[in-house]
Specification:
The complex is a heterodimer of chains A (223) and B (400). Chain A is α/β, with parallel strands linked by helices and 223 residues long. Chain A is built from seven helices and ten strands. Helices cover 35% and strands 29% of the residues of chain A. In chain A, helix 3 packs across helix 4, helix 3 runs parallel beside helix 5 and helix 5 runs parallel beside helix 6. The longest helix of chain B has 43 residues. The chains are: A alpha/beta (223), B alpha+beta (400). Chains A and B meet through helix 2 and helix 3 of A and helix 1, helix 10, helix 11 and helix 13 of B.
Amino acid sequence: MIQLQAITRIFHMGDQVIHALDHIDLTIDSGEYVSIMGASGSGKSTLLNVIGLLDRPNSGQYLLDGKDVTALSETEQAQVRREKIGFVFQSFHLIPRLTAAENIEIPLILTGMPPAERKERIAETLQAFNLGDRAHHRPAELSGGQRQRVAIARATILRPTALLADEPTGNLDHRIGSEVAALLEALNRTGTTLIVVTHDRELGLRARRRIAMRDGRIESDEQ
Amino acid sequence: MKLADLLRFSLKTITSHPTRSLLIMLAMALGVAAVIILTALGDGARQYVVNEFSSIGTNLIIVLPGRAETAGSFPGAVMGQTPRDLTLDDARWVGRLPQVHRYAPLNVGVAELSAAGKLREVTLMGTTAEIFPIRHMQLALGKFLSSTGENSAQIVLGAQIAREFFPDGNAVGQRVRLGDRRFIVTGVMAIQGESMGYNSDELVIVPVQHAQTLLNTTSLFRLLIEVRHHNEIDSAREAIRQTLIQRHDGEDDVTVIAHDAVLATFERILRALTLGVAGIAVISLAVAGILVMNVMLVSVSQRTAEIGLLKAIGAPAAVIRYIFLAEAIWLSLTGALAGFILGQAGSWILRLTYPLLPAWPPLWANFAGIAVAVLAGTLAGLLPAVRAAKLDPVNALSKR
């Protein structure tokens, strides 16, 4: 469960102060499927980054599963990211020199899992994401849809409680985009909280709960 | 993250950026090789100087008649005019001391040399055959005074004198007149130029007894003594002094000097050379360090997005530092090793090119070169990584 209380994030641009998040209060229950929509600069990506512990709010309180995570040290936050949160980016963020299997392996390496167990997990995951025949291809040799599937596989291999996606279909054509959305929704059906940030109305409307943002505030929150 | 995974992961990064990795290793290798080759050159030069100086003889003690009352020697001592002579018998007694390896009595004077219808004034030196090893002098032709024939009227001509009197080069066996005495030429010295104040090319050498008769003196000008070992210089000096005091009725009327002045100069030169070599080494290492730091800095900043990603998927700052540290150590070690091999090869070529120069890199330079390179490379890789690891993941991610 994600609870945000009066979360504020301020950026300085020259002498201008921008409230990317302006006293946001938001509660997202486990297993929800939420889309966050809004124009660029509305603060939707900043909200996702704060939820994913990639960014620190200037003020406010963030409880993740009842625990205040804003006060955690850098190392503890890294552990929370590793165990509870999976991140999917618009530009995939795969490491270009590593193969698909090796990219998926990184989170497992970080937890210190022994190689034999890792191999097994990777084989399972590649199979589940229909990447079996792409295991030893580098990102440059994969299609956009395949890259995003690798990124999602990497984000979910440690079975996080929340999957955060920032414009997951932004770099994909319509058909592949729907496939990726369907894949994320399938993961949501297994119990993973899914939060998707997008300015694509069609993708946003697929979510059960739709949040619209403007100027750092929540404009509407429809169930 | 496990160590094996860490090493594998960082090695993979290195091999997948061959140009960048090669550049870093090249900078590192060149730095280390420069240190090794330059110190080899410097140390070779130092060795060369050591050898040259030991040709003058660092085990040398000089006895002169008369007592130096103050720091400088008094005029009488220089002229060899003192109440009590330093005699050949004194020299023989000193020669029996256990510390003494060999000795050569010395009389110096000026006399007219005439032969083959030519006449000129020459500096004559009366001594024994031992002078040759003591002063590292060489004969070009013939021989000089075997110890059995000490009293025969032999003469050895300096290279220049021999050329002037016997341009045909047939000096050996010729009869010459020195002062009012006749000598037979038994040898010609090799060209050696100036050494310790004499131009030995314009010198003639005769047995010491003949020189004393010619110069009408019974006192030696100098007594040169070579001790067995450099360590024994002090004890030898004292023993020589005691022996001579005893023989001179308890009077301390000789001056015994070790080759101290020369040694001191020699030490100063060596120290300056060593410092120079160390300075050169430090400069080349600094250059290498800066080169490595440059390439590392650029490569780490290029990979800020990757650092952001690693943080986003849960790598703590410490792990990110370890990854870059491992990478820097891989690169530095390989580079330093390549540089070591390059440096050894370079000094080998140097030794082939200049056989006179014993250009062996000193052991400390090998170790220091590798150690400093690895340290510089590690720091150069680590510092930007530490900075990158501190970034909030969102900021790191947005840098492409």
